[in-house]
Design a protein that fits this description.
Radius of gyration: 20 Å
GO cellular component, one term: membrane
InterPro entries: Calcineurin-like_PHP, LpxH-like, Metallo-depent_PP-like
Low-confidence stretches: 1-46, 52-72, 75-83, 209-220
Strand content: 15-25%
Number of domains: 1
Number of helices: 12
GO molecular function, one term: UDP-2,3-diacylglucosamine hydrolase activity
Strand order of the largest sheet: 1-13-12-2-3-4-6-5
CATH topology: Purple Acid Phosphatase, chain A, domain 2
Structural class: alpha/beta
Helix content: 25-40%
Organism: Cupriavidus agavae
Mean pLDDT: 74
Keywords: Cell inner membrane, Cell membrane, Manganese, Membrane, Metal-binding
CATH class: Alpha Beta
Number of strands: 13
Distance between the termini: 59 Å
Length: about 350
């Protein structure tokens, strides 16, 4: 497997940011104990099996258009309409850092986004399933399984779905070039926009010095980040009760740190340098949980964000315009649990 240079990233700022950026573990185990669930350490293959057809077993273990150079960020928040809202069609959608298998995953918002947005090509740009968390303890609610099934259903209905693994789901990299359930796994790939712009698509963890050279620190940071996300969830429950949209407290805190800004700038320069070396006009990545579209050193840098903090996706319109879409308001909110229980009881009676 190829390893790319990352000298610009391996510094103390990177260590600190990755420690904040990567997390998810001890809170889940504590919650499992409080619920009386056994602490069963299931293997990553069980999670990846959700992407496989039933009969398959897993092995063991050009010039940019003006709109592209000056893209817009678009909030997808809008009032709930009566009946089903219309589906928005795009040429391509990029999603990353979903982190299925963790309490911080915003599966309900992602399902709502997938329901109301279609595309010719859908790129899953790494950290879709969080293998780090699943190795610590099993966490897989029904909503996470619904996300997997929704992705498989889109693939069956004609959407080209390309899965580019990241560091949290690196186990899938061994299946580079294979297709599972109409989803193709690629370590990296190139997307050509409607305007002829070549964009290198990769998760980005191979340019993170902490992940590559101090993995123990990345795992330690994973636990710290879990605590921040737990606080973020409670904070947004209060906001929701007060009628406010989702807002990421964890992302706000992270980007107030001066070293975090320095790390992100170094990451962006390293990514576009490699894209240029590969003969591309820009890069699309994830990994650092900060949605962005901007020009860096004459190259187009696009980061699609994440689905634990920013609830964002990168999209290409049919005209070739690139946008960041934030999905912070549900079009079809789920019914409250109490209402579902009352309805079920009525049907049973």
């Amino acid at each position: 497997m190829a390893r790319w240079p990352n000298a610009a990233i391996a510094d103390t700022g990177a260590a600190m940011v990755q420690a904040i950026r990567s997390t998810r573990g001890s809170f889940s185990r504590l919650a499992q104990r409080l619920r009386g669930k056994p602490d069963v350490a299931l293997q990553m293959s069980a999670a990846f099996a959700a992407f496989m057809p039933p009969q398959m077993d897993l092995p063991s273990s050009a010039t940019a258009a003006p709109s592209a150079l000056h893209p817009t960020s678009e909030s997808a928040s809008r009032p709930v309409a009566e009946g089903d809202a219309p589906t928005q069609r795009y040429r391509a959608i990029w999603l990353s850092d979903i982190h299925l298998g963790t309490p911080g995953c915003q599966a309900t918002y992602l399902l709502d986004f997938l329901k109301h947005n279609d595309s010719d090509v859908l790129y899953l740009v790494g950290d879709i399933i969080d293998g780090w968390q699943l190795r610590r303890g099993w966490y897989w609610p029904q909503s996470h399984n619904d996300v997997v099934q929704k992705l498989l259903r889109k693939a069956r209905k004609g959407t080209e779905v390309i899965y580019v693994p990241g560091n949290h789901d690196e186990a899938a990299r061994q299946f580079d070039g294979m297709a599972f359930g109409d989803i193709t796994v690629r370590e990296d790939t190139v997307h050509v926009t409607a305007t002829g712009k070549r964009l290198w698509v990769v998760h980005g963890d191979l340019f993170d010095g902490v992940v590559q050279h101090a993995k123990w620190l990345a795992h330690l940071g994973d636990s710290l980040y879990t605590m921040i996300l737990a606080l973020n969830r409670h904070f947004n429950r209060i906001r929701a009760r007060l009628g406010f949209d989702y807002w990421s407290l964890s992302q706000y805190l992270k980007h107030q740190v001066k070293n975090a800004v320095s790390y992100i700038n170094s990451f962006e320069h390293a990514m576009v340098d490699e894209a240029r070396r590969r003969g591309c006009d820009g890069v699309v990545c994830g990994h650092i949980h900060k949605a962005e579209i901007r020009e860096v050193d004459g190259q187009l840098y696009c980061n699609d964000g994440d689905w634990v903090e920013s609830l964002s996706a990168l999209v290409e319109t049919m005209e070739g315009e690139l946008k960041i879409v934030y999905w912070t308001t549900l079009i079809d909110p789920p019914e409250p649990v109490s209402r579902r229980r009352r309805r079920s009881a009525t049907v049973a009676a």
